């Protein structure tokens, strides 16, 4: 008897008792549906978090601040020392950045500029409080347009989406290539200067850095120059934070060692993943608990498979005895019943995955117009082919293992006793 014949026989035998088989498949469906949907939510949320991480520097960036004056919660405040400058406390100087650049596994160090803009104004002449940050090496997730250019001398902005309607634009597309006015003041004299910049892109809504607008280097330099105009020299070129770009492909141990080195020198260093790691842990914990419920449903379904096939063996005892009397081996009998279990697992997992995908589309459509409205680019439920295939394989493996008990009983039946069975 060929494998194809065994599969055909298993498929036809499966539907001898349709009610029993359908109920077993439904039990598998519930488990597959729950696991697939929660996995989809996990993928969707983590994908969005990854986009936000890329938008604030990615995995190879450290955000560094001075530890001076912060002390240690367990040791109390740091004691004052005469050899420490108190002119500008808790600031990072150019000398500090040069020292960081010389450290092992550091590619470059850039200041995190404190850019102060009084307001932004566009075609409706209304003025709004405005903030922005440097483009740096960020991978900007945009709703419309292109990222700001690091090479041009023109002043460019990737504007946050919250400003589109307020500034009088009908849509993100309508805002592209439009001029806006930025009012920037000197911190020393409060003298105000108006700068014109061009909107070249509109950001998607961001959860990580509050959706700050992004300035290109030329505009960033101009704003910083105006802010520091007429400041004392001791207050210039001092920064609250700096960003360290690490070398590519560093191991976790190497990143930890660099953090420890910075800590020994009086700096507090964190990756973006450190800052949002708690969010990711909470999401993974929630979806993990929901996946566990799906696993419990699959465990219950596996007992349904055992029961279904045990009853099938009992119903077909004489048939099994006849097949064995005609020369069918124990392994072929075992394989035939195992194939029935695999088919139950296959149909249950396929229907469960398809049901989860359909529900995912519905949830995404509802979320986009309700509780996730405004978070452009956030698909709450996403599916990947590897995860779908893995779920199906695991479920079919569980079904196969559940089916081995009745399949083994069928294979070990004595043909004479089986033929006498009433």
Automatic annotation (TrEMBL):
<dbReference type="InterPro" id="IPR003838">
    <property type="entry name" value="ABC3_permease_C"/>
</dbReference>
<protein>
    <recommendedName>
        <fullName>Permease</fullName>
    </recommendedName>
</protein>
<dbReference type="Pfam" id="PF12704">
    <property type="entry name" value="MacB_PCD"/>
</dbReference>
<feature type="transmembrane region" description="Helical">
    <location>
        <begin position="383"/>
        <end position="403"/>
    </location>
</feature>
<dbReference type="GO" id="GO:0022857">
    <property type="term" value="F:transmembrane transporter activity"/>
</dbReference>
<keyword id="KW-1003">Cell membrane</keyword>
<feature type="transmembrane region" description="Helical">
    <location>
        <begin position="21"/>
        <end position="45"/>
    </location>
</feature>
<dbReference type="GO" id="GO:0005886">
    <property type="term" value="C:plasma membrane"/>
</dbReference>
<dbReference type="InterPro" id="IPR050250">
    <property type="entry name" value="Macrolide_Exporter_MacB"/>
</dbReference>
<feature type="transmembrane region" description="Helical">
    <location>
        <begin position="289"/>
        <end position="313"/>
    </location>
</feature>
<feature type="region of interest" description="Disordered">
    <location>
        <begin position="67"/>
        <end position="86"/>
    </location>
</feature>
<dbReference type="InterPro" id="IPR025857">
    <property type="entry name" value="MacB_PCD"/>
</dbReference>
<keyword id="KW-1133">Transmembrane helix</keyword>
<dbReference type="Pfam" id="PF02687">
    <property type="entry name" value="FtsX"/>
</dbReference>
<feature type="transmembrane region" description="Helical">
    <location>
        <begin position="334"/>
        <end position="363"/>
    </location>
</feature>
<feature type="domain" description="MacB-like periplasmic core">
    <location>
        <begin position="21"/>
        <end position="223"/>
    </location>
</feature>
<feature type="domain" description="ABC3 transporter permease C-terminal">
    <location>
        <begin position="292"/>
        <end position="415"/>
    </location>
</feature>
<comment type="similarity">
    <text>Belongs to the ABC-4 integral membrane protein family.</text>
</comment>
<keyword id="KW-0812">Transmembrane</keyword>
<keyword id="KW-0472">Membrane</keyword>
């Amino acid at each position: 008897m060929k494998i194809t014949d065994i599969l055909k026989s298993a498929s036809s035998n499966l539907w001898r008792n349709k009610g029993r088989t359908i109920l077993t498949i439904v039990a598998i469906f519930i488990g597959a549906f729950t696991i697939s949907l929660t996995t989809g939510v996990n993928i969707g949320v983590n994908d969005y978090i990854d986009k936000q991480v890329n938008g604030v520097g990615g995995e190879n960036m450290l955000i560094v601040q001075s530890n001076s004056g912060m002390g240690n919660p367990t040791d109390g405040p740091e004691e004052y020392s005469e050899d420490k400058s108190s002119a500008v406390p808790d600031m990072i100087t150019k000398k500090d950045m040069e020292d960081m650049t010389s450290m092992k596994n550091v590619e470059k160090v850039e200041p995190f500029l404190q850019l102060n803009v009084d307001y932004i104004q566009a075609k409706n002449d209304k003025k709004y409080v405005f903030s922005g940050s440097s483009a740096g090496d960020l991978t900007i997730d945009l709703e419309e347009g292109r990222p700001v250019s690091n090479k041009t001398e023109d002043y460019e902005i990737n504007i946050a989406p919250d400003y589109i309607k307020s500034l009088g634009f009908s849509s993100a597309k309508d805002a592209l290539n439009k001029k806006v006015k930025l009012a920037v003041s000197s911190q020393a004299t409060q003298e105000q200067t108006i700068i014109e910049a061009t909107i070249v892109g509109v950001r998607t809504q961001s959860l990580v850095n509050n959706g700050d607008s992004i300035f290109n280097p030329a505009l960033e330099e101009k704003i910083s120059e105006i802010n520091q105009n007429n400041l004392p020299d001791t207050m210039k070129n001092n920064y609250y934070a700096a960003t360290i770009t690490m070398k590519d492909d560093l191991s976790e141990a190497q990143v930890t060692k660099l953090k420890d080195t910075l800590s020994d020198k009086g700096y507090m260093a964190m990756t973006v993943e450190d800052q949002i790691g708690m969010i990711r842990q909470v999401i993974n914990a929630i979806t993990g608990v929901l996946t566990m419920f799906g696993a419990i449903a699959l465990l219950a379904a596996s007992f349904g498979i055992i029961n279904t096939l045990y009853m099938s063996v009992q119903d077909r005892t004489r048939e099994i005895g006849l097949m064995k009397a005609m020369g069918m081996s124990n392994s072929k009998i075992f394989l035939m019943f195992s194939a029935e279990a695999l088919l139950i697992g296959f149909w249950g997992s396929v229907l469960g995955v398809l049901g989860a995908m359909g529900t995912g589309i519905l949830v995404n459509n509802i979320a986009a117009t309700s509780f996730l409205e405004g978070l452009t680019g956030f698909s709450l439920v996403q599916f990947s082919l590897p995860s779908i295939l893995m779920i199906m394989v695991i479920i079919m493996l569980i079904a196969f293992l559940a089916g081995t008990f009745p399949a083994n009983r069928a294979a070990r039946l004595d043909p004479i006793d089986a033929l006498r069975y009433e």
